[in-house]
Each structure stands twice: as structure tokens, then as C-alpha cells.
Amino acid sequence: MQFHGKTAIITGAAKGIGKEIALMLAEQGAYVVVVDIGDASEVIGALQERNLQGMALQVDITDYSAVEIAVREILDRRGSIDILVNNAGIVARGTILTMSIEQWKRVMEVNVNGTYYFCKAAIPSMISQKSGKIVNITSIAAKTGDLTAAPAYGASKGAVSTLTRSLARQVAQYGITVNAVAPHAIETDMSAEWSEEKRTGVVESLPVKRMGTPREVAAAVCYLASDDAAFVTGETLNVNGGYLMD
Ligand SMILES: NC(=O)c1ccc[n+]([C@@H]2O[C@H](COP(=O)([O-])OP(=O)(O)OC[C@H]3O[C@@H](n4cnc5c(N)ncnc54)[C@H](O)[C@@H]3O)[C@@H](O)[C@H]2O)c1
User: Fold this and answer.
1) Ligand 1 — pocket residues by CB below 6 A?
2) What is the overall mean pLDDT for the chain?
């Protein structure tokens, strides 16, 4: 129970990778705050079934005042924010020729601004308590350019990766680590949109020859959120079936 007594926020945790991160942190003792723009009743039900602790907050992370209100509410109810996992993300499919300006802006707003907003709202309390773990979910696309999505996605994840390193430098002196996990080819609704042909091609390109699971990403997040990773900051951990080894 390495996270016993800790409070963890996980954005975009109603389903997919975020849901498994919330469940795994809770299984290891954390009180989890499931933040999502959508209905999180399924994950709250799963927590209750297993007697695990947590609550849901319906928040659009692109709205900074809503993020500030959520962070204040969590601090009022729990007294601290020990772990922040910025997982919420969206993708736009297409090319520079087909993707609209509105799509570009929305991907940037959710993936970049939303990540920044939660860091901005949560870091002051982490500084006061002189501890905190932040884990941002980026993507292999930050390193390779988009493999399966439109250019906004890779650009947004590149920003998340660089933000991770910039914040890691700024807040290390306060006992706060900031790391990232870069998944690729994980079985969720995001990858369920792929055609059968694309899926076969992706699996074939991976040395492990299979898709990854949300729990395999969650395990990497739990490591970076743990005290075992206290000397690791500004790092991006690949969870990609060996596709990119850097
Ligand atoms: N699935 C993959 O193969 C893969 C690969 C690389 C990176 N990722 C990244 O992992 C993260 C999770 O992806 P997933 O596959 O679980 O996606 P998903 O679509 O299954 O889940 C994303 C969640 O984010 C929430 N969300 C979207 N916009 C939001 C907003 N404005 N405010 C609050 N919540 C919002 C959605 O409601 C949803 O619950 C994303 O950042 C994604 O870019 C996924």
C-alpha cells in the first residue's frame, strides 16, 4: 500500500488509460479524484465494488476557472494533493490538408492547456508541502511525429514532453518531481478507431507483436508517482512494445 494516505488527481479518468491509472493508484492505497469532462460513474462504481477510495469531479480541463475551483475543492476536502496525473487527451485524425483550424485549437487546448492548467493550479500547494509527484501522459508521437493521427496531436504531445522537463527543473528544489509516460499502441477507445489494416500494421511494427494494455501504462505511472522514483525527474518513460528505443 505504497500510496496509503495520499491524494491523487487523475484527469481523463472516466475510461481508458486514465481509468486504469485511477484503479491501480487506489489499489495501492491512494484516495483518487477522477476528473473527466464525461460521466465517471463506471469508474466510481468499480472503486466502490472493491472498497477503494475516491470521488469524481466533472471538469472540462480547458476551462481554467473550473480547474481552479476543482483544485480548491480537493484541497478543502483532502488537505493535500500528493499526485497529479495529467492523462486527459484527445486526437484528431487527418492531415494538414483535411484538419480544420478548430480541430487544431481543440487538440492544443485539451492536451497542452489542460495539462498546464492543472499543473498551475496544483503546484502551489505542492510547494507549500514540499512534496509532490506529477506524471504527464505524452505519446510516442512527441518523438516520432504522428504515426496514426493528425499533426496537431504530435505537436501537442511534443509540448507536453517539453513542459514536463521545464517544470521538472523549476520545481525540483521543492521536492516535486515531474515526469512523463509515452505510450504507443494501447488498447482503448482512442485506438479502437483504427481500421483493421492499420491495427495489423501497427502490431506488426512492434517487436512484442501485440497491443499494450491500459494497466501496463498505469504500472509505469505508479512507479513514477512512487517514492522509489524520487531521484527520477524530467524523464519520459516509453511504454511502446519496443517500437522506439531511445
Ligand atoms: N491509446 C493509445 O494508444 C495512446 C497512445 C499514446 C498516448 N495516449 C494518451 O493517453 C491518454 C489517455 O488516452 P486513452 O487512449 O485512454 O483515451 P480515451 O479517449 O479512452 O480517454 C480519454 C479521456 O479523456 C477525457 N477528456 C477528453 N477531453 C477532456 C477535457 N476537455 N476535460 C476532461 N476530460 C477530458 C475523455 O472524456 C476520456 O474519458 C491521452 O493523453 C492519450 O493522448 C494514448
Assistant:
1) 11-12, 14-18, 36-38, 59-62, 87-90, 110, 114, 137, 139, 183-186, 188-191
2) 97
pLDDT digits (tens, 9 = 90+) for 155-190: 999 999 999 999 999 999 999 999 999 999 999 998
CB contact set of 197 (below 8 Å; sequence gap of 6+): none
Residue 173 C-alpha to ligand 1 middle, in angstroms?
31
Q: How far apart are CA 10 and CA 93, in angstroms?
A: 25
Could you state, in order of their start, the residue ranges of all structural domains in the chain?
Answer: 7-239
**7-239: CATH architecture:** 3-Layer(aba) Sandwich (3.40)
Which residues are bridge partners to 11 per DSSP?
35
CB atoms within 10 A of CB 222: 24
Euclidean distance between CA atoms 228 and 222, whole angstroms? 10
Look at residue 139 in the predicted model and tell me its pLDDT.
97
Nearest CA to ligand 1 atom 23: 12
At residue 109, does pLDDT exceed 80?
yes
Choosing from 153, 174, 223, 243, which is the catalytic residue? 153
- Å from CA of 244 to ligand 1 middle: 21
Task: Indicate if 153 belongs to the active site.
Answer: yes
Q: How many CA atoms lie within 13 A of 198 on its CB side?
A: 10
